[in-house]
Write a structure and sequence with these properties.
Chain lengths: 166, 421
């Protein structure tokens, strides 16, 4: 029996120790990863007709040009512009997240928290809001307006391409 | 046994002990409140409201918890200032300085998570505003916001997240970290022993038995603090406004008072500077502080020296003056972005004001060195004092002097926050 130099051999004890340590790291990674997965914020289940899902706003004829209708359950405003096109605006102020009410007399959104002002297209008329009100996707199927509130669409400025024409 | 020279009340003002007493009071009242509180969006408000009329002494216990929580944030901050201004953060104490910063962070986090639990308008919108500040932090901000809120908006999941943080995670973190904080004080042979200019190492300062010399003093401070908090709790009721209504924002809506410095900064500066660069720089400065300077000529002496006391006062004047000037400038005069239209706001509302502040600090530091003969240590202290004054002025202005539409107003002219129509 020939003995190899001690530096080159790994004894059974050492090998088991290494495997044990490796398994320890695996267990630690599993625990950390599992905790992270457990705690990771989940997407709310999309509810039909409420915020987070697709909200049916109603037939196109229900909305007059120049009208802004509030949908409390969907947490958005449906604005019909003078040219007849639709915009679905998030009611959440882009400054610090307050809920913006529509002022029918002034034809403006005025944030009560920090006095940002938006027009009926959601564009910023007065700071501190850094960008226009966020949008939701509008679709018109068979003359009925539907708004998908699952994803907010961020924009830098108002652009006519954002308007959905019936 | 403790060094006799460290026992004078004006050496520490008993602030560390007061923090511990406030924490223990919070645990005691918090456990009581748990018996009454219902941690759900549907039941939270009514359970807190029931404390007022239905639960015997319920309002008193809630008041003690509320004012105790605010007292802890204030006392922990004052404790930090005491440690800084008596130079008790260098050398062997530098690890404990870092531990203390984490304790302060947890105390503030504990207050903030508790802020949401009553689930009234005040709580809901303060937490909405404070977590919306994260929207302006690039990259990590929105993710951190989603994790804190447990979704895109403040809602029932935010309440359960904050509840768990408030009653389990943060108290456990504090309970684990507090013994380390105390043990590291013992390792450094007790609180810092005063050593003036030219005095040698105090070595073995005269010792007296810790009991009763120290315990009696700490006990007196503890009882005085409890008596004070009890008096406040008897007179002043913790606020409880209308139930949380996500559809109706109050005017103005404010973050909890200890975050108002940042909300105030956001009124003036570019978001990247106000809620990312400056807070990160402040945190870095706080953590690096023990390693930034050579061992000082004095130790355990308030403001280093007589001249240090004078130069620190000048720093406070310069800082608060500059902050007030900035606030009034933005309210009364056209902003830099209007003077220089066409330039990006990151420049006009970010780098330009920062450059002005840096130039002012540089000129002030030079003046202190040349005209006042201040040492480097004293100049550093004066500059830190100026920064502290800026932070305090901004917090005060934001919390007390901002009314409807975030315009400047006198505190007595403000309508009750979040009262709404």
């Amino acid at each position: 029996m020939t003995e190899r130099p001690a530096q080159q051999t790994v004894t059974r004890r050492e090998a088991m120790g290494r495997i044990g340590r490796l398994l320890g790291w695996v267990v630690a990674a599993e625990c950390i990863g599992g905790t992270a997965l457990f705690l990771w914020p989940r997407k709310a289940k999309p509810q039909e007709g409420a915020y987070g899902g697709v909200v049916t706003a109603g037939p196109v004829g229900n909305f007059a040009p120049g009208q802004v209708a509030a949908f409390a359950k969907g947490q958005f405003y449906l604005a019909r512009l003078e040219d007849g096109g639709f915009l679905a605006l998030s009611r959440r102020c882009t400054h610090l997240g307050c809920t913006v009410p529509w002022d029918e007399k002034a034809k403006r959104f005025v944030c009560p928290c920090h006095a940002s002002v938006f027009d009926e297209q959601g564009a910023v008329l007065s700071a501190p809001a850094p960008r226009p009100l966020d949008l939701y996707a509008v679709t018109i199927e068979a003359g009925v307006v539907k708004v998908d509130t699952s994803t907010r669409i961020l924009r830098d400025r108002f652009d006519p391409s954002q308007v959905v024409k019936p | 046994m403790v060094p006799a020279r460290t026992l004078a009340f004006t050496h520490t003002f008993g602030l560390g002990g007061m923090c511990l007493v406030a924490f223990l009071l919070l645990v005691a009242t918090g456990v009581l409140l748990l018996f009454a509180y219902e941690p759900s969006a549907g039941g939270a408000y009514d359970s807190v409201a029931s404390l007022r009329y239905e639960v015997p002494l319920g309002q008193l216990v809630r008041n003690l918890h509320r004012w105790g929580g605010n007292a802890l944030v204030v006392l922990a901050f004052l404790h930090l200032l005491r440690v800084y201004y008596t130079g008790a953060y260098r050398g062997v104490r530098s690890t404990n300085w870092a531990v203390g910063l984490f304790l302060l962070l947890f105390a503030v986090a504990g207050n903030f998570t508790g802020y949401l639990l009553p689930w009234d308008q005040l709580a809901f919108w303060a937490v909405t505003i404070a977590t919306s500040l994260l929207d302006y932090v690039p990259w990590a901000g929105p993710l951190l916001q989603r994790i804190l809120r447990g979704g895109a908006e403040v809602g029932p999941r935010t309440l359960s997240t904050f509840y768990i943080l408030h009653i389990v995670i943060l108290p456990v973190a504090l309970v684990l970290l507090l013994p380390a904080h105390f043990w590291l004080v013992r390792k450094a042979q007790g609180v810092v022993v005063p050593r003036g200019q030219g005095e040698g190492d105090p070595g073995r300062a005269p010792l007296v038995p810790a009991s009763p010399a120290l315990t009696a003093r700490e006990g007196a401070v503890a009882l005085a603090l409890l008596a004070g908090l009890l008096a406040v709790a008897l007179v002043l009721n913790a606020p409880l406004e209308a139930p949380a209504n996500p559809g109706l924002s109050p005017n103005p809506a404010k973050a909890p008072w200890y975050f108002m410095g940042f909300q105030e900064l956001l009124v003036h500066l570019h978001p990247l500077v106000a809620v990312t660069l400056l807070p990160l720089a402040a945190a870095a400065l706080l953590f690096r502080l023990p390693h930034l300077s050579a061992p000082a000529a004095t130790e355990g002496v308030w403001f280093l020296s007589r001249r240090g006391r004078r130069t620190a006062a000048m720093g406070a004047l310069v800082g608060s003056g500059a902050a007030l000037a900035g606030v009034l400038w933005d309210e009364l005069l056209p902003r830099a972005s209007e003077w220089l239209p066409g330039l990006p706001t990151l420049l006009t509302a970010g780098l330009l004001p920062l450059a002005c502040a840096a130039a002012l600090a540089w000129a002030f530091a030079n003046w202190l060195r040349r005209r006042q003969g201040a040492t480097g240590e004293e100049v550093g202290q004066a500059l830190c004092t100026a920064l502290l004054a800026v932070f305090l002025v901004l917090t005060l202005v934001g919390a007390g002097f901002r009314g409807e539409g975030m315009h400047l107003a006198w505190p007595w002219a403000l309508q009750a926050q979040g009262a709404g129509p």
